[in-house]
Specification:
5% of the residues lie in helices and 51% in strands. It is mainly β.
């Protein structure tokens, strides 16, 4: 049985041109900020919602959302930096309209010291909808958790281990580490505003505050160093430019202490199927992280799943060592939700005599 249904008319982006202009102006202005930060970050920030702050908890169309990320960086330069992340959140949790609950976990291992950072947090959010068709939504959230840091001094080398001719690992390093691990609590807060005119026209503006308690970190016997509060903000826009094509410009800006990072880019979405709650689309995009790397993105939307693959092309002062090789990143998102029943046509048969 084949169903032939008329295609819905493509919504016109000119209805919201003022909103688009404001968002895109923000994208343009933020590109002038220099980026030098090398904190944990994800190139596909648009596919890592819980990494943007607790304001993103429950901000999706569905009941449950699960997210997985793998990132490997600097393999051409040194011991690769590897990051794994898992997240899950619920919208209208426990049947309470507007309540979101979520958990976020990541592990990062970096460099010769095998420095590991493991973070686990749980959070909650509350969403208020308004507008004549409830097309506006404002979400505020809070996360509580802890971070564990550890290093392996056995992976490091020191001047005292040079015997005058060559490096001798049997010699003492002459260094004393009071401890090789530490743990601190984290408190994060955030907010997200969303506007959705229809299924293909939307704007999201988010802001997050991390490390609100500025916890102290120390591996040596000296005084600890306070971890600076980090801010993260983003703007993501989607609107149709043709019957089956959507444009998705976006920007993210992060700041921690004296370091800043800006990511800006655009994805193009080609729709293969969008009917009865089923969606099939492919995405391609180009992005730039200021003063650090450009990266290409390819994605696939297949019903409940969204898959992403990106590769960073290094453009920083590290190019002589990296030879432009940066990072590869893989993402997967699954959103579980109830779909409308698919109508079925019945063929009337003559009654049997």
């Amino acid at each position: 049985m084949t169903l032939h249904l008329p295609l819905a008319p493509c919504p016109s982006p000119t209805r919201h041109s003022l909103l688009y202009f404001g968002a895109l102006t923000f994208l343009f202005l933020t590109t002038s900020i220099r980026s030098t930060a090398q904190d944990i970050h994800f190139s596909q920030f648009f596919n890592a919602p819980l990494a943007s702050g607790p304001g993103t908890i429950g901000t999706f169309d569905g009941n449950y959302r699960f997210n997985g990320i793998f990132r490997q960086q600097w393999r051409a330069v040194t011991v690769p930096y590897r990051t794994f992340a898992l997240g899950g959140d619920a919208a209208n949790a426990a049947g309470v309209q507007g309540l979101g609950l979520g958990a976020w976990l990541f592990n990062d291992k970096a460099g010769d010291s095998r420095m590991q950072q493991t973070h686990l947090s749980i959070g909650a959010s509350w969403t208020e909808r308004f507008g004549s068709e409830r097309e506006h939504a404002l979400t505020g959230g809070l996360q509580l958790g802890f971070t564990s840091l550890s290093i392996d001094p056995a992976g490091l080398t020191f001047d005292n281990q040079y015997n005058g001719y060559y490096y001798d690992p049997g010699l003492g390093s002459g260094e004393q580490f009071a401890r090789s691990s530490s743990t601190h609590a984290d408190v994060h807060a955030g907010a997200v505003y969303r506007y959705q005119a229809d299924a293909r026209t939307r704007v999201q503006v988010g802001f997050g505050l991390f490390n609100l308690t500025t916890p102290g970190i120390s591996f040596l016997s000296g005084p600890s160093t306070d971890l600076d509060m980090r801010t993260s903000s983003h703007v993501m826009v989607q609107f149709p430019i043709a019957e089956k094509l959507d444009l998705l410009p976006m920007v993210q800006f992060m700041s921690q202490g004296e370091f800043q990072e800006v990511d800006i880019g655009t994805n193009l979405r080609y729709i293969m199927l969008d009917r009865y709650g089923l969606k099939r689309a492919v995405l391609f995009g180009a992005h730039y992280r200021a003063a650090d790397a450009g990266y290409l993105y390819a994605g696939l939307e297949y019903d409940d799943w969204t898959f992403g693959l990106s590769y960073d092309i290094n453009t920083s002062d590290l190019v002589p060592a990296s030879r432009n090789r940066g990072a590869i990143e893989l993402t997967a998102i699954r959103v579980l939700k109830k779909r409308p029943a698919i109508p079925v046509r019945f063929k009337a048969c003559p009654p049997q005599i």
